Amino acid sequence: MAFGMMKQLCSGVAGCALLLVGPAVAEEFTVSLPAGAQPIDGRVLLILTPDGKTEPRYQVDQNIDAPQIFGVDAQGLSAGQNVRIGREVLGFPAEDMSMVPAGNYHVQAVLHKYDTFNLANGKTVQLPAARGAGQNWRNEPGNLFSTPRQISFDPARTGDIAITLDQVNPAIAEPQDTEFVRHFKIRSESLSEFWGTDVFIRGHVLVPRGFDDHPEARYPLMIFHGHFPADFGGFRTTPPDPDLVCEYSERFDDPCYNRVEQQEAYDQYQQWIADDFPRFLVVEIDHSNPYYDDSYAVNSANLGPYGDAITHEFVPALEKEFRGIGEGWARFLYGGSTGGWEALAAQIFYPDEYNGAFAACPDPIDFRQMMVTNIYEEPNAYWTYGPFGRTPKPGKRNYLGHVDYTAEQENRFELVLGDKSRSGAQWDIWEAVYSPMGEDGYPQRIWDKRTGVIDKEVAAHWRENYDLRHIMERDWATLGPKLQGKIHLYVGDMDNFYLNNAVYLTEDFLKKADPPFMGEVAYGDRAEHCWNGDPDLPNSITRLRYNTMYVPRIMKRIEASAPAGADLTSWRY
User: Which residues cross the membrane (predicted)?
Assistant: First the structure.
């Protein structure tokens, strides 16, 4: 160790908080609480960037040109103690502080606070509670951070650079009801029991025109699955702001994409109130939790019974509150990416409770292509091996196939943000949802986070419980009749995250399924993430139209499948 004499405050391969008790032998950082601060547990993140235009914490991502970040755990950190971050603490993009070039940087530290949960099974874990920001460590209320400042750094020098966590994120205000957007929450009995504390599921509900004037009407329900919603998005009752300052979208190469978003939101409102538009409810669900910004809407050994809680607790309560029809034929699911996987999974796991899933660019639905890795047959998630060498596996590409970062880099980025699947990022939530719980109360690793070596026993658990193509094929004799006409899959053939690969394999099964699946699988030519089924418009537009684009197909499905005596009129005013 190059740190001199120190006292370790935690354990773990990803780096630990260290109480400074001796001199440094290379330039390093010490992060401390202000005087009088209460003891706290969490993950300390240190960020260095040459760009001072915005706070360093808001620049962090997994791209290779992102700021430098290091992370260590802090257990019982108190005022007067220091967390030392120096050599041998894992970093990204540079793995070690010795690899950071000498220069002038803007520096900031953040402490992502952990709470202690005493689970119903007797395990005790420390995790970041969902506190209103969708597990965004940059903004979660109660997280500490330092005032950014500029420094000169040289890894060859000796000395300390002291950083004080002198700021705290404020609480986030609850969204307010409007004529069309209402808010709803329930305490889930099953989740509260699992976590050993009160757990709430929230919904942001778009109600139809005339909702308050038609108390006799009962409505179909559309569940728009996806990442954490702070409020109902993409709906605006006024035209775009004439004084709007344009913001350039690098993703869509649009000089004023924020105006496009406002116009689309207003257009949706105009369509929503049109005389000939069907009346129904749309809900965006906030099921953020200690591992991620949402739960993946299924039962999980590590997250608890979110599938049952949403389908059997939340949805019936919401329908009772907002006069939903309350029967499976009148419930539909849609979403993209994470939401696409959730829509398909909920339809498969609760086939009688929903009448159709429109899954766009879904997260891998066949783990023989977990992006680009067959987790059942390949030995490693980061490397493809030959007799005399190895090739890194890609993590993200553009439509030309140019790679932004590798699978190893993305996973190392997550490990810097948090060990024990606590990064709040993509691979870790898959692990938290799909894996069995380990003896320590945290998810079992699907692979070694540093080496990429795959654990085949964990992979087998993933296959039998969450590989959606495998589950459909295994159980089609009983599932097939219940899923006929309900499955719709859409993905671009140049999806940035290779999600089309798993759809190809799933389509191979669906095309030969008996009884026939009677649904739809479609691909967008050269389309990136997240193509959702419209061949005539770009992603930049269709991603803003989920709540209207599937309506014609949903209405046909209702007409074809509603049981005798079903209410097909009260909501068509």
Answer: none
